[in-house]
User: Which sequence fits this backbone?
């Protein structure tokens, strides 16, 4: 496959130093993230020779730790692989139910295409792909359709596929299979909010599991999958990322990695508001997803992966930092991790200025509800030049943005006590 990339040191002044971006060209949706034999594979929507959306390829990068990424040659190329190579998911066929295995590697199958799903498969560990059945569509939903995502149901011992379709309005079609190649229509789930890039995730809870269905926007509902049909009692969705999400925003089209050891649920999304002289778009920092009981019901929490700690070069900590109706400047730089425990019992409004105002007021963090616990909130920020990720109370709030960095300032209306503030300077992932 081709490697159409110029040399770069990844040091353009607004390119993230620990957020993945393509070596060059346009990047959008995360596709078929998966783990195989010690390597994480990230595929993505890609126009390698353009700075804007163009004829779609699948770009490819690999990592052994979810932190340091290496650009690989193009995975799916429209000059080689037929059809519209739009977004989709992938699986590792460890039991060779597809019968495609030929050699030492387990087959890796990925699914793509518009108005019908095409299968491509790899026999060399996810580096190069062959086209199954000359590009025959394995399913064709009604209406306009795209973005197939395959999942495994260990209870019914079948594979499922969820595909977005607008037949009769926004919603998804579900299909089932025992061999990953022959699919049977099972059911449809309709909802106005359920637009593009669907994902169905089996998540542990209380020694059992629930199924979370989310759209490209990150809006989700919690429910049950019975092997053919998805059910949810929710009438309104919640958000995995509590920002204004749309195609090209600071968070969109997230997918979860398949085949990750120990059932860990790791998600990455597309951040579309950043660009440089030879590249456009980047991926979000990987986050661990977990499902929790809260006072408002079940909620998905997002926390930055612990592997990011491997980038910490130096650490500085302040204790009992008090700001009263004023401003406190903190030396931080433009690539760092911030952790803080804040007593908000006497404050009207508390703001972290990091190129964007991360403001806490009336038990809300930038509009997302964040109730104090014993009068305190916990904040965790990842500041990476033009990329910003905000986490509140151990993942109850998760927000992602593309912003221009600025000097760190703490601003208080009223009296705020930052009981502990820790800043870790982070190294670049670009070796």
Assistant:
């Amino acid at each position: 496959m081709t490697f159409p990339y110029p040399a770069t040191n990844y040091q353009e002044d607004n390119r993230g130093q620990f957020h993945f971006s393509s070596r060059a060209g346009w990047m959008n949706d995360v596709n078929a993230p998966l783990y195989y034999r010690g390597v994480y594979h990230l595929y993505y929507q890609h126009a390698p020779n353009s700075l804007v959306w163009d004829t779609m390829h699948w770009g490819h990068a690999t990592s052994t730790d979810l932190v340091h990424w290496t650009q690989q040659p193009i995975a799916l190329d429209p000059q080689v692989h037929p059809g519209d190579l739009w977004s989709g998911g992938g699986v590792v066929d460890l039991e060779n139910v597809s019968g495609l295995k030929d050699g030492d590697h387990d087959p890796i199958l990925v699914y793509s295409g518009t108005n019908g799903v095409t299968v491509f498969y790899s026999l060399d560990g996810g580096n190069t792909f062959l086209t199954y059945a000359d590009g025959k569509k394995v399913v064709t939903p009604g209406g306009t359709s795209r973005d197939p995502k395959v999942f495994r149901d260990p209870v019914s011992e079948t594979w499922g596929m969820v595909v977005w379709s607008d037949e009769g309005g926004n919603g998804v079609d579900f299909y089932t299979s025992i061999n990953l190649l022959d699919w049977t229509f099972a059911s449809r789930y309709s909802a106005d909010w359920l637009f593009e890039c669907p994902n169905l995730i089996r998540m542990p809870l209380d020694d059992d599991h629930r199924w979370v269905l989310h759209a490209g926007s990150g809006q989700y509902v919690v429910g049950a999958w019975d092997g053919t049909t998805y059910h949810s009692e929710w009438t309104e969705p919640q958000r995995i990322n509590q920002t204004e999400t749309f195609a090209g925003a600071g968070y969109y089209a997230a997918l979860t990695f398949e085949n990750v050891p120990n059932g860990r649920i790791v998600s990455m999304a597309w951040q579309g508001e950043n660009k440089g002289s030879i590249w456009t778009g980047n991926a979000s920092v990987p986050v661990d997803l977990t499902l929790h009981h809260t006072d408002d019901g079940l909620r998905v929490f997002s926390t930055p992966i612990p592997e990011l700690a491997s980038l910490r070069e130096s650490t500085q900590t302040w204790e009992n930092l008090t700001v009263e109706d004023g401003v406190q400047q903190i030396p931080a730089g433009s690539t760092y991790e911030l952790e803080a425990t804040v007593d908000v019992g006497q404050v009207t409004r508390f703001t972290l200025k990091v190129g964007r105002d991360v403001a806490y007021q009336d038990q809300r963090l930038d509009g997302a509800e964040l109730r104090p616990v014993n009068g305190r909130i916990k904040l965790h920020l990842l500041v990476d030049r033009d990329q910003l990720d905000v986490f509140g109370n151990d993942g109850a709030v998760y927000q992602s943005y593309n912003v221009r960095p600025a000097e760190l300032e703490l601003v208080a209306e009223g009296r705020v006590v930052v009981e502990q503030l820790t800043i870790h300077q982070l190294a670049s992932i670009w070796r």
